[in-house]
């Protein structure tokens, strides 16, 4: 796992984030003010600021906002470097690469996407990602100041395979910084909880109804991974013991009734003719009963599963994304009705059901969030961080 | 909520825990060593140590281990005070009070329980708790050094009512320290993840099958609460749309098939005669088919629910507790079989199913864990803690 590191480096990273956080909130501050507000010793602060300046994340300005002169020694004021890149997010989806960038002030500098064939080689995808990043940077962003790249991939992170091991290596070679990897659907969950439909939500359940059915949990503001990197596999919850065989090897999984293909198949069985989700939306708009009935049936199944998960996990917001969410109230209405019917009555009005807002770029934005959340100040702190020890 | 406090006090508490953690791990340390290892400034360290000494949590010793003499100024060495109480856990169960105590070294000093009638008044229960604590302390523990009391209660914490508001007030009056409250089943989950069947587990799902059916989730080593304090309500997940009416107002909840009463009723319907769980265990031991069949049927239902939750949440360990767990393999076998049948195949061998080990005192131990976990170093840190601001 890329995210493990010794208590020493975690403590150091925590101190760095503390200093960056103060500069983010207050703008330029003197060394003295930073010392008082952070509670760090002069020596520790000196080290931390040295590293942040060397990486280009922090620069000095004179009191009047210009660069300091050589003469005398004016009180040195420090500020974030707006040109410094803090994090890149890349989503290697099945048939497209999406990228997004934030600067040290945590402002999204931009995002870009490009589709490709499903069989494009890994190295070519990485090259495409690099090209997309280049198109956003336009010479102003200092890539040398990047703290990390957060990357979304298809499928469970626990899966192994040549590709999985090659990817971090290839990316590290290209960008020269640490690479953090996670499932792209889970990253979309994290992004929706920060910039999307559940912005500011600490406990969020995200369900994606697309060609596959999956999702992610944000718990206490952090992405929940599970003991072995396996969580958010909502698509493989059994909803019908006598149902269809699922690609995962199970029977009657939610994915066998709520994936795009399952819904289109059911629609055809009911006499409909939609070729894709756009066709289904058109059928709905034309008032076709088959389309409405199929989505009601699927929504009822989905809502019952969401109710079970709400009773267990207690999210404040449920976000439904993926292509099928484009069918709107025809699907979300029945989901909400079944959710309300099966959720613990005292929880009934405490969870809000919303449609995802970030679209395709959610995974890449989630990659950025992953990098920003890896800070021990934002995610779990080690039990007893301590200088002088290299690893737990 | 008792757990909210401003960034300033959280930062301070973080610094205190950092210092206590160093002393816990290393034994006595000089001020200089504490400064170097903590990275805190001299001023900050002075304040933190002053407060810890005033509370009795930390005491000074001379280099040879005895109290410092008056003459000269020997290098002051600091150590944890083994007589200082760090936390009390109290579980106000339906018909009993359980208490447990740890000292500042996080050693469990002892635990005690006493049953009472279901209608005992709240004030009398608090008095009983105080008496039980007194029986453990025996004059050696300094209650004045207690940092907090962690308390388990029956039912969701989100519930309001006179009792809920009275309890923290009564306890604060008795013990003079902050009171942290949570559902006692969730606290048992936390305790099992620290001292019980899942000791050391970071991601644990605890299911209690008793007169009620409930549970708790430990996520990344911390108790998961959910957006509105509603989580772990596994007993109210629908397992049979056409099932019996549940006390919660729903229909066909897991509790309607897997509570002690539901199981005994099903056993009677199948021709059995057990009056209680002990009777059911006796029937099993006598080889009675009705007892075995009923538990197989219940276990199959339970296992399917656990599989759904595993796919969603990804625990490393599932702990099954409560009276019904006393039926042992007759219940756990079918649970495991159904879990294995319904869990995502790649997760199948990654989750371990275990019987709870802490018994009745789990809730009280969980109260202690709650207090120890409230440290920002162990639970979620505020995004940008900062001296000079009183509250977010």
TrEMBL record, chains A, B:
InterPro entries reported for this sequence: ATPase_NBD (IPR043129), ROK (IPR000600), ROK_cs (IPR049874), WH-like_DNA-bd_sf (IPR036388), WH_DNA-bd_sf (IPR036390)
Highest taxon above the source species: Bacteria
PANTHER family per record: BIFUNCTIONAL UDP-N-ACETYLGLUCOSAMINE 2-EPIMERASE_N-ACETYLMANNOSAMINE KINASE, ROK (REPRESSOR, ORF, KINASE) FAMILY
Similarity field: Belongs to the ROK (NagC/XylR) family.
Protein name listed in UniProt: ROK family protein
């Amino acid at each position: 796992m890329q995210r493990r590191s010794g208590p020493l480096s975690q403590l150091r990273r925590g101190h760095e984030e503390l200093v960056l956080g103060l500069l983010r909130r207050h703008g330029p501050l003197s060394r003295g003010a930073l010392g008082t507000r952070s509670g760090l010793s002069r020596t520790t602060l000196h080290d931390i600021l040295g590293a942040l300046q060397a990486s280009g994340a922090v620069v000095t300005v004179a009191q009047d906002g210009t660069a300091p002169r050589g003469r005398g020694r004016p009180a040195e004021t420090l500020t974030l470097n707006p040109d410094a890149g803090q994090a890149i997010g890349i989503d290697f989806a099945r048939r497209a690469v999406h990228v997004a960038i934030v600067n040290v002030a945590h402002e999204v500098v931009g995002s870009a996407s490009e589709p490709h064939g499903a069989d494009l080689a890994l190295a070519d995808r990485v090259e495409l990602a690099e090209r997309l990043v280049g198109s956003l940077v336009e010479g102003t962003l200092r890539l040398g100041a990047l703290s990390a790249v957060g990357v979304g991939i298809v499928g469970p992170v626990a899966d192994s395979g040549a590709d999985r091991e090659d990817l971090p290596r290839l990316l590290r070679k290209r960008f020269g910084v640490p690479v953090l990897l996670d499932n792209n659907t889970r990253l979309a969950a994290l992004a929706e909880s920060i910039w999307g439909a559940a912005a500011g939500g600490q406990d969020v359940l995200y369900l994606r109804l697309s060609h596959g059915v999956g999702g992610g949990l944000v718990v206490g503001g952090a992405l929940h991974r599970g003991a072995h990197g396996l969580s958010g596999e909502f698509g493989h919850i059994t909803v019908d013991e006598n149902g269809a065989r699922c690609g995962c090897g199970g029977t009657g999984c939610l994915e066998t009734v709520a994936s795009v293909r399952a819904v289109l198949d059911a629609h055809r069985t009911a006499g409909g003719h939609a070729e894709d989700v756009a066709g289904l939306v058109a059928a709905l708009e034309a008032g076709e009963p088959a389309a409405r009935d199929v989505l009601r049936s699927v929504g009822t199944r989905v809502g019952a599963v969401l109710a079970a998960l709400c009773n267990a996990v207690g999210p404040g917001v449920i976000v439904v994304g993926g292509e099928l969410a484009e069918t709107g109230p025809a699907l979300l209405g029945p989901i909400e009705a079944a959710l309300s019917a099966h959720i613990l009555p005292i929880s009934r009005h405490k969870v809000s059901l919303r449609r995802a807002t970030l679209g395709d770029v959610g995974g890449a934005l989630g990659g950025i969030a992953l990098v920003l959340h890896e800070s021990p100040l934002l995610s779990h702190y080690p039990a007893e961080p301590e200088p002088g020890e290299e690893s737990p």
